[in-house]
Amino acid sequence: MDFRKKRGAAAKSAAVTLSVVVLATACGGSDSASGEQETLVVASWGAYFTEATRTHLADPFTEETGIEVEIVDAPGKYAANLEAQQQADNVQWDLLDSTSAPDAYQMAHDGLIQPLPEDLRTELEGVLGEEAVEEFGFTFSNLGYVIACNTEEVADCPDSQEAFFDTDAHPQRRQMISTLPLLNLSLAEMAAGVPAEDIPTHEIDMDRAFATLEEIKPEVKVWWESGDQMEQAFRNGEVDMGIAYSGRAFGLAENGQPIEVQWSGGVYNPGFWNVATDAPHSEAAFQFLEWVAKNPEAQAKWAEHTKYSVPHPEAFDYMDDEFKTQLADWPDNRAQLTTLNYQWYAENSEEVNRRWQEFLRG
């Protein structure tokens, strides 16, 4: 696939103009244009996530290189904001911190993020492994979408999507995520008999997948939009089992909730570090990516701060023994997780998203 394919030009609305003005004010414009000291601008997710990136990645990088790093909070708004900046020919951001996989593949498809330089990509594949490196970046902030069960209500927690979707064998109340249509369609395809190992390259039969989802829909009592909502549904007893963030599910168990986590039948969901197309400081941005990718101790500290997984195999050497076994990149866990066909989604996202919204409303 040509990930540098550009999205067709769109008319710039007043809302887009306002977004760019706000971003320009927040970021202070390009350092190279003003002649000031070079400063990288990183878009991140806010709160503890931004704190972890600043403390364990940005500040140590600045200490070693002298390159300053400014972090701008833009949770869930990377694509829209970056597209607005590019349409205005005023790109403010250099780097995107832990872009969700569907967004990363879509932005690469639309030309919003840069491919890695070939020599850097080869080098990072040697450090992190080929499976952790894509043309447009490397994985970071990785998690599993797992099956989680309240053991007081579910004696035999499903260990496959076929079992999770079997409402006769498991009539308990469920929850699923509302914001990721590709994930749900892929789970439905596995429930319909598509082998998990085929899912990364499988072109989804949308009619079949939506029909499978319609069958389980009456037992899905909560379609959650955030990790907080997912946790609350378990705490309040609204649901007995569900598709959950791996880290959040383990957090519930650690805080006394009777939660069992099944990695088997789950999905590996990576985030990605990316460099924006037309970034003001591309060379320094790729230098930052290289520093992060090659620093397992910094990755380990970041993971312990956020509870999300990181790609460097040696990062586990710096982690608590119990904690590292709860991460999606821990080898025993990773081996049980499939991945999704994000390239297919990037090419079919308009139809997928339209039909998904119709499904939720129906």
Automatic annotation (TrEMBL):
Keywords on record: Periplasm, Signal, Transport
Location in or out of the cell: Periplasm
Task: Mention any one GO cellular component term assigned to this protein in its UniProt record.
Answer: outer membrane-bounded periplasmic space
The superkingdom listed in its UniProt entry is: Bacteria
Q: Where does the record place a coiled coil?
A: none
Q: Which Gene3D superfamilies match?
A: Periplasmic binding protein-like II
Please list the GO terms describing molecular function.
Answer: thiamine binding; thiamine pyrophosphate binding
Q: What is this protein called?
A: ABC transporter substrate-binding protein
Print the organism lineage.
Bacteria, Bacillati, Actinomycetota, Actinomycetes, Streptosporangiales
